[in-house]
Amino acid sequence: MTTLPESPIELTIERLGQLGEGVAQWEGRTVFVPGAFPGDTVRVRLEVQGKVVRGLLGQVLTDGAERVPSRCVYSDACGGCDWLELSVPAQRSAKQEIVLSTLEHLGRLKRTDFTVRPLMVAPRDWGYRRRAVLHGAGKGALGYFGRRTHERIPVDVCPALTPVLTALPGKLAPLLKPLAKDTEEVLLLAEGDKAAFAVNMSGQVTARHQEAAEAAVRALRLEGAVLVPKEGSARLIGRPVLRSLSPLRPEVPVYLRPDAFAQAHAEANVGLVTAALYELGAKETDSVLELYSGNGNFTFPLAGTAGSVLGVESSPVGVDLAQRSAREGSVANVRFVQGDARKVCDGLVAEGRSFDLCLADPPRAGAPGLAKWMRALNVRRVVYVACDPASLARDAAGLVEAGYKPVALQVVDMFPQTHHVEAVMSFERGA
């Protein structure tokens, strides 16, 4: 192995890697440089991190053509938005290429083997995030993790958040000081002009914790809060469940809670749901298995065209919210099962069940074993919604190996100013 130089060196960035870092070459080795973009000439100090060489950015000597000024005062240190200094057109083209190249290199799927649809662009690329995860950042402050570190960066305002949340980190932090030493995370959530928060606790909820949270809700005129103990039931304060409308089915309410998952970009989520339904192509005679169904984000639009939908979700909160939506929206052709997707699918296979279609929206780790279940449940078409290109590539390769042919890929720019992206990919079972 070549010995790394002790002094900083100069590199020219060639492209962007899967994790959004700049990629350069040094003496035949690939170097990943966080915070650098194609065309930049940079001075870096090389360091081995695991199996890769990273360049710790010291100075940008020459700006690449797509580098732009940041609109956020925290961008030098904060790890929340890693592409603030990359132009929006460059972000969009890079995201499409990152997903395609990951499918090629990790999944061994050629981009010519399926239809690649044009990138679906988010309606807003600034001030769009309706949810956030904050951490204690010392002296009673709240903030985000730093770039590629677990260092806490205090933040008073966050312009990436929707207007009702933008100044909430700085306003909420002093009011939650009585909870600070027992807090693991503070979760913010907005729907329109309404906001709520949750606190994931390191232990049990005490009367002191509840009094502080109640005072914060009153002082900031929030809808409510949820205190989530390490073990046991959550404590609800006020009305932390926020009402929204189901994408494509506004007659069905959808409920959000700050301690449960929700897509970060509300407007782009409509496009994501539309893309998934289009790729699935459910008809009124089809039975649909929906894995990782959450609060019903995809479920109720699906139920509007399919014969029946069985939603599987591990979060009890998500299932409760979805069942409430089904009741209030009078949606009779859906059923929800609370449990781990792997165990539920194994049980469905053991019962001899079969489904025409499957929509899976797994967490970042993906859905290992998905291909096995699809074959055993006789599913003819699968739509996979992915927030991680590597997990998509791995699970797509498994589906192809099990006899499913890739049909189409739709990349959705759900997270402007970051390298994160959503992708919708469809697969059809071969004869």
From TrEMBL:
Biological process (GO), any one: rRNA base methylation
InterPro entries, per the entry: MeTrfase_TrmA_AS, MeTrfase_TrmA_CS, NA-bd_OB-fold, SAM-dependent_MTases_sf, TRAM_dom, U5_MeTrfase_fam
Coiled-coil parts of chain: none
Leader sequence residues: none
Residues holding S-adenosyl-L-methionine: 263, 292, 313, 361
UniProt domain TRAM: residue ranges: 1-62
Similarity remark: Belongs to the class I-like SAM-binding methyltransferase superfamily. RNA M5U methyltransferase family.
Full protein name: Class I SAM-dependent RNA methyltransferase
Organism: Corallococcus interemptor
